[in-house]
Structure formats: structure tokens, C-alpha cells
Design a protein that fits this description.
Layout: E1 7-11, H1 16-27, E2 31-36, H2 39-49, E3 52-55, H3 61-75, E4 80-83, H4 99-127, E5 130-135, H5 138-141, H6 148-167, E6 173-180, H7 185-193, H8 196-204, H9 213-225, E7 236-239, H10 243-246
Parallel strand pairs: 1-2, 1-4, 2-3, 4-5, 5-6, 6-7
Helix pairs in contact: 1-9, 3-4, 4-6
């Protein structure tokens, strides 16, 4: 129970990686606020973890600030912030992306985490202890085809991660990013639209499989959330079975 007494906020915790991380943090003793847009799945995760559900659209600044305020009001602090939420984008070529698509991607994938970090930081700094974990993506690192808004938002989030880590290094607050390779909710949605790519994705992974959110990703998030990560900051951890080593052969047939 290495996180006993800690308060964690996990966004997008209704399914996939977010739900897996929420379960693991709760198992380690943390009190978990489940911030999720989908009320049904969010409440299910909160019930499973013994935590609290707050319906949150992370593209809405007021809702993000209310999310952090709820954790502090409920449990007196916020010690761990996991920015995981993402809103599904459309697969398509760069020249066909609209301003609205890009604005939505940046609102969910960059501004939402930024607002949450800005709101949580004063509470963490006051206690001299804090953990921020931002879920980024190989899509941005490797510039996967078809997902410009996602790629751009996730790389902007990695830049935010490193900048905050540098500026907050003396406060006891560490900030790190995970680039996971897992069969998340977003992965399953993508594969439902392009089923021919799932086997290809497994085959091109050096370990021969795309990871499991509970068994492969959540334990790394729990490490970054704990005392053992006190000297780890500004890093990107590629928790992907080695996919980042040679890149990923991702070439969907884009119209």
C-alpha cells in the first residue's frame, strides 16, 4: 500500500488505460477521483475502486478546475494527477483536417492537462510533494499517418511535461510522460474501423503483442506516482514492448 493516504485524480478513467491506472492506484492505497465524460463507465470505475466520480469534459476549463477543487474539498489535497483523457478524432489526411478537428484535439489533449496541472500545482507545492503523469503517444513521436490532431496534441503535451518538470524541479513535484502501447479504448475504436491493422500492429511489435492496460501500463504509472520516483522528472517512458526502437509500420489506406 505504497500510496496509502495519497489523493489521485485520473482523467478518462472510465475505460482502457485510465480505468486500469485508477484500479492500480486504488489497490496501492490511494483515494481516486475518477474524472470521466461517460457517466456510465465513470461511475462503474468509481464503484470498482471505491473512489469518487465527477463527470468531466476536459476540453471545458471550468469543469477541469471543478474536478481539482472536488478532490481537494473531498480529501484535503491532490497528490497525483494522471492526464489520460482523449476525445476520439477522425482518421484522415493532413490536407483534409479542419480547424475544428485541430482545435478539439488541442483542447482535450493539451489545454485540458495544462489547466489541470495549473490548478493542482499550488496544492502539491504547498505539501512539497506531487506527481504528474501525462499520457502521451508514439503517434506523435513517430508521426503516424491519419491522426494529425492527436499527434500534435500529444507532442505539445510532452513539451509541457518537460517544461513543467524543469520549472517545478525544486518543489518536490515531479512530472513525467508515458507513451503507452496498449489495447486501450482509443486503440479498440481505431481497430474497429480498420480491423486489418490489428494483426499488423501485433506482428510489428518487438514483443509480438500490443500491451495490456492493467498488466503492462498501470504498474509503470503506479511507480511514477510513488515515492520511488522522487528523483525522476521530465522523462518520457516508452511502455510499448519496444515499438519505439525502430518505429511502427503504420500505413492505413487514407482516402
Amino acid at each position: 500500500m505504497s500510496l496509502e493516504g495519497r489523493v489521485a485524480v485520473v482523467t478518462g478513467a472510465g475505460d482502457g488505460i485510465g480505468a486500469a491506472v485508477a484500479r492500480r492506484l486504488a489497490a496501492e492505497g490511494a483515494r481516486v477521483l475518477v474524472a470521466e465524460l461517460n457517466e456510465e463507465t465513470g461511475r462503474a470505475t468509481a464503484e470498482e475502486t471505491g473512489g469518487r466520480f465527477v463527470r468531466t469534459d476536459v476540453s471545458d476549463k471550468a469543469q477541469v478546475l471543478a474536478m481539482v477543487d472536488t478532490a481537494v474539498r473531498e480529501w484535503g489535497s491532490i497528490d497525483i494527477l494522471v492526464n489520460n483523457a482523449w476525445g476520439a478524432g477522425d482518421v484522415g489526411r493532413v490536407e483534409n483536417k479542419t480547424d475544428a478537428m485541430l482545435a478539439h484535439g488541442l483542447s482535450v489533449g493539451f489545454y485540458g492537462p495544462l489547466w489541470a496541472m495549473q490548478s493542482a500545482f499550488p496544492h502539491m507545492k504547498a505539501r512539497g510533494w506531487g506527481r504528474v503523469i501525462n499520457m502521451c503517444s508514439l503517434n506523435g513521436v513517430n508521426a503516424h499517418m491519419g491522426t494529425l490532431e492527436y499527434n500534435a496534441a500529444k507532442e505539445a503535451l510532452r513539451t509541457l511535461t518537460r517544461t513543467a518538470a524543469r520549472e517545478w524541479a525544486s518543489t518536490g513535484v515531479v512530472v513525467n510522460a508515458i507513451c503507452p502501447g496498449a489495447k486501450s479504448a482509443a486503440f479498440r475504436r481505431m481497430m474497429s474501423e480498420h480491423p486489418e491493422l490489428e494483426g499488423q500492429a501485433d506482428a510489428t511489435n518487438p514483443m509480438g503483442r500490443i500491451g495490456d492496460p492493467d498488466q503492462d501500463i498501470a504498474p509503470v504509472a503506479a511507480f511514477l506516482a510513488g515515492e520511488g520516483a522522487r528523483y525522476v522528472t521530465g522523462n518520457t517512458l516508452f511502455v510499448d514492448g519496444g515499438s519505439h526502437i525502430n518505429g511502427v509500420a503504420w500505413a492505413p489506406d487514407l482516402p
